[in-house]
Amino acid sequence: MTDADLSLAYRPFSLALAEPLETADGTISAREGFLVRLVDEASDDSVVGYGEATPLAGWTESLADCEQALERAQNALRTGGPSEALEVVDQQVAARHAVSLALADLQATCEATPLYRYLSQGPMIGRVPVNATIGDGSPADTARDVRAAVDRGFDTCKLKVGLRSVEEDVERVRRVRETVSHDVELRADANEAWTYEQAQSALEAFADLDVSMLEQPLPAGALEGHADLRAQNTGVSIALDEGLLEHGVDTICDANAADVVVLKPMALGGIDVARKLAAWLAELEVTPLVTTTIDGVVARTGAVHLAAAIPDVPACGLATGGLLAEDLGRDPVLLEKGSAVVPQAKGLGVDDVWTE
Ligand SMILES: O=C(O)CCC(=O)C1=CC=C[C@@H](O)[C@@H]1C(=O)O
Ligand SMILES: [Mg+2]
């Protein structure tokens, strides 16, 4: 394959969620983006690579900026090859995610290697643990949704909190705990909703209810506040998500602000970028965890490969396909007993997404 033989095409898509996901950041009811296809014209059987750019307000560039960036990448690929195509989308994380994923899928496919092994050069991995994602709802609805997830095989559930009063959120978690045993790991994600005092009182109550992790309780800027919450040693891990985009790994680790850092490849510019951050975090003894931005099957499967390339990754937010009412194509990732079964076919393992 020579660079000059590669051509990039993209097309828009819109995927509705089965039910709107209520978060303290806002409601997500549909995901719009671009499916990317790279073709190596020189290969006899036209090897292809797929990528996906699904911008999310507040986390990535806008849909319009993403489209312009993909157009630039299309031209740059023709004139300057892959490195130039990546360079011209350097500041548009969702577009860069798509282009870098398509390049990696194509390369791994050419090498007849599953994408995660192309990324990690590591051992074969059969499964990665995943969590169920439970949106805001009444205490009864939340308990019902968690029960249903546990009945489907999940043993880790992440609840969205921060839309109601702290007392109501604590009541939701209490109802959930009454419904499922302590074998089920419960996490909560407040998406920056709380003041320090609110976070402190939630943390104490959550510790009593055996919640394992509280994600982004305070605004992204509040690194010291997160460090202070951590220093209380309640037994509840503090995870940063939005905080990573604002501060980067070094600043978070220097401030001792997190036990866990959430990596969203779509918001970070790609699975290649996220994998480097994961290695860096692990070196600094902070746990990396992978989630999607409620993406289509191409980006979601890319995130599964990323998680499989991270040693000893904890349960990740990758079981988000079921939140969509429709998808870009067949899902190659089976969810079984709280794990995602990692595709072992060459490349991403996604096909039939680009129908003419
Ligand atoms: O982590 C998960 O279980 C699924 C992904 C998820 O929760 C999110 C996806 C996209 C935007 C956010 O509201 C949210 C998050 O903050 O982690
Ligand atoms: Mg989060």
Automatic annotation (TrEMBL):
EC id: 4.2.1.113
Reaction equation(s) it catalyzes: (1R,6R)-6-hydroxy-2-succinyl-cyclohexa-2,4-diene-1-carboxylate = 2-succinylbenzoate + H2O
Protein name: o-succinylbenzoate synthase
Cited function: Converts 2-succinyl-6-hydroxy-2,4-cyclohexadiene-1-carboxylate (SHCHC) to 2-succinylbenzoate (OSB).
Pathway: Quinol/quinone metabolism; menaquinone biosynthesis; Quinol/quinone metabolism; 1,4-dihydroxy-2-naphthoate biosynthesis; 1,4-dihydroxy-2-naphthoate from chorismate: step 4/7
GO biological process, one term: menaquinone biosynthetic process
Lineage: Archaea, Methanobacteriati, Methanobacteriota, Stenosarchaea group, Halobacteria
Highest taxon in the source lineage: Archaea
Cofactor(s) the protein requires to work: a divalent metal cation
Species this protein is from: Natrinema hispanicum
Catalytic center residues: K160, K264
